[in-house]
Amino acid sequence: MALLTLDSLSLTYPGAAAPAVRDVSLALEPGDAVALMGSSGSGKSALLRLVAGLERPSSGTVTLAGRVLAGPDAFVPPEQRPLRRVLHDAELESGLTVRDVVLDAQPKGEGLAHARGMLALFQLEEVEQRLCGTLSRGQRQRVLLARALASGAKLLVLDEPFAGMDAGLRAALLGEWRRVLKARGTAVLFATHDVGEALAFADRLVLLRAGTVEQQGAPESVYEAPRTAFAAYFLGGTNLLPGSAFGRVARTSLGNVPLNAEARGQVMLSLRPEALRLLPDTDGVAVGGALRAEVLERAFRGAHVDFTVSCAGMALVVRAAPSSPLREGSRARLEVAGRAEVLEETVG
Asked: Does 4-224 carry CATH code 3.30.470.20?
């Protein structure tokens, strides 16, 4: 049986023209990490507040560990729900030390060693005697997470859990925290705007648009097989390419493009930037199946470079290694090096 079940959950605020959450169904097993993603106003925070009990649903049910927490004939107030929440407005008692905050959150019988284990997990050992009112934003966020985990709750409801942390620390925490959550069977439902964070940490992504679920699935499946242009763009950008499909291939302005699945007729394709290859074209002559292109823009992203190129009457984004010698104004050869995904809906 699922630990948390949301069944046809909806929320409409008084006076609102449209629901903030519309007919959302979702299930979390023990140990699951599920990321809610979407643009501002998509319903991420509203959905978390429904689970936490800070909002009452207009319709639908919330069930946790077999108990209905919210529904047509039931509503359990937030302080009585067997979960821990860290939402964007969460506060810490400024006059308490970091250690005392974590100790106070623990179940009876857990001692100082357990608290210090939580502090070590979030790299807070050096500030355990500090008053919470003296901490930086990132340190406060880590204390909130340590307190939530120390409580022993089987469900954590988190809004932007790594906000305020520097990139290096966030990367160091993600893997170890995920391992501990899995070992304890603790499920996490969290909202984030950080695509990299969601892809690295979550077992499942739930992409929201206008309060409804646009697409959900394993991070790899949602990234590699987006159903809509919105999903494709949101998870890191893509190139939209019209074509005519015949089986596992589509005719396009870039030539014949291989597809991830069979299709027939007129289609709109999502072709990720890494599915294109860009090579220098010193003599200005296209070779083989390559097309001539011109580099319009070069954007360094650290681990890779994104080129915007003009080719076949379109502006395309191509991802390459930072060592690429191409610069703005360079002539190049463009090749399709991967497969495209056929979109079900193209309105972004």
From this structure: no
